[in-house]
Write a structure and sequence with these properties.
453 residues; MgtE N-terminal fold; CBS-domain; three-stranded mixed beta sheet; 6 strands
Length: 453
């Protein structure tokens, strides 16, 4: 739904709410996708959103609730009665129901659990013990599994039996009589096989699975790497306990990307900035600002040490911001690629060295181009001595290469010592570039003044 359509629907809904035309409201609501409906409810005033929400049946309301952001969802839950909330949770898949209940206060969650039917309550209680950011926290218990010695026809009958329970079906999993996962059959292959064939004759035995303790980011990387639309979850004895589907993986990728952006901004633990205290935000950001502060103090001492050189050729000082900025940009570019590769778990030691040497080659090429440009600029506008232009240009090249090497190496070092490269790399690159880069530039300028001028 584009913005124009949403605006028109929004206006219609507001009018129909004002005149309490319930039949027309229901006709509009039923045709709107839950994700679009969630956007509309966010755009409505709270009383209007509540009014619309009360018109939906439990299934529709559950689908819309899952599309709301946490703030909107929490606000909506506050206005719902326990009975209504219990009906909605009962219409959710086990993984979604568990996510919603984990966000509720303990007392409210217990009240909702008591109102669920026995089977739904057992599923939620089985899932809620897992860590939220693990495979167990992501998985759903709704899947289709058949014994390896059963036939294709048996599998199809099992699918029909679970049609209401399993919303998304991509694979049928094959297990032995101890419930251990032994194979997987894509739905297309199952439908194209003869009905009397045994599952063991058509299943793929090279099954990619994860344990319930696996971190959700690692799960997402496995799904992405092997182009899966669902992945089975097993226990320590390889018994099938659940599945994770692509929609949950996309949510993880979105969550992890958001988390990385929050970390870079100094926001921790997926908290909403407005809800965090000033002290908490400061505690999170301050250590890395102190790292940068220490580096800049070092830069000041270096400039003080080269004060006499700067006074001899004032033009030397003109290029300090330019060279520092180009070095910083070169380092950030290299580090961004490396931090991404670490986050996505791309490659081993061989690929790391290949990436390192690629960044070195890129830095050399870019540094050479920029050094040639600055040489001609210096010669044309600042000094008629070509050697001075060569020194400035060569300084630019060395500083950019140095910054790129630091940017390529530091993330791996930080990751090795269990620091998050996403937040810690920036201050290290800034500090090292300003200290080392300034030292390189001023040392080469001093050499020019002392030996070449």
């Amino acid at each position: 739904m584009d913005l124009g359509d949403r605006k028109e629907i929004l206006e219609n809904l507001k009018y129909l709410i004002s005149v309490h035309d319930i039949p027309k409201l229901k006709n509009i609501i039923i045709d709107i996708h839950p994700a679009d409906m969630a956007d509309i409810i966010r755009d409505l005033d709270t009383p209007e959103g509540d009014y619309i929400f009360r018109l939906m049946n439990s299934r529709e309301a559950a689908d819309v609730m899952l599309e709301l952001d946490e703030v909107s969802r929490d606000q909506l839950i506050e206005d719902l009665g326990i009975d209504r909330l219990s009906e909605m949770v009962g219409n959710m898949d086990s993984d979604d129901a568990t996510d919603v209940l984990s966000e509720l206060s303990k007392s409210v969650a217990q009240q909702v659990l008591k109102r669920l039917d026995k089977e739904d309550r057992a599923e939620v209680e089985k899932l809620i013990v897992h860590e939220e950011d693990s495979a167990g926290g992501l998985m759903a218990l709704e899947f289709v599994a058949v014994f390896e010695d059963e036939t294709v026809d048996d599998a199809i009958q099992k699918i029909r039996q679970k049609a209401q329970e399993v919303d998304q079906l991509f694979y049928v999993y094959a297990v032995d009589h101890q419930q251990r996962l032994v194979g997987v059959v894509p739905l297309k292959k199952l439908l194209l096989s003869k009905r009397d064939m045994h599952i063991r004759d058509i299943m793929n035995t090279d099954v990619i699975s994860v344990t319930a303790e696996k971190d959700q980011e690692q799960v997402a990387n496995i799904v992405r790497r092997y182009d899966l639309v669902a992945i089975p979850v097993v226990d320590d004895e390889n018994r099938l306990v659940g599945k994770i589907t692509i929609d949950d993986v996309l949510d993880v990728l979105h969550e992890e990307a958001t988390e990385d952006m929050q970390i870079m901004a100094g926001i921790a633990d997926d908290e909403i900035p407005q809800e965090m205290s000033t002290l908490r935000i400061s505690r999170f950001r301050l250590p890395w600002l102190l790292v940068a502060f220490a580096g800049e103090v070092g830069s000041a001492f270096i400039m003080r040490a080269f004060e006499a050189s700067i006074q001899q050729i004032v033009a030397t000082a003109f290029f300090i911001p330019l060279i520092m900025a180009m070095g910083g940009n070169s380092g950030i570019q290299a580090s961004t690629i490396v931090v991404r590769s670490i986050a996505l778990e791309e490659g081993g030691t061989t690929n790391r060295w290949a990436r390192f040497f690629r960044e070195l080659r890129v830095a050399l090429l870019n540094g050479f181009v920029m050094s040639v440009l600055i040489f001609f600029m210096v010669y044309a506008f600042f000094s008629e001595d070509p050697l001075f232009g060569v020194v400035i240009g060569l300084s630019m090249l060395v500083v950019m290469v140095n910054a790129a090497l630091v940017g390529a190496v530091v993330p791996y070092v930080l990751n090795r010592f269990k620091y998050d490269p996403a937040i810690a790399t920036g201050p290290f690159i800034t500090t090292s570039n300003d200290v080392l880069g300034l030292f390189i530039y001023l040392s080469m300028s001093l050499a020019y003044l002392t030996y070449l001028r």
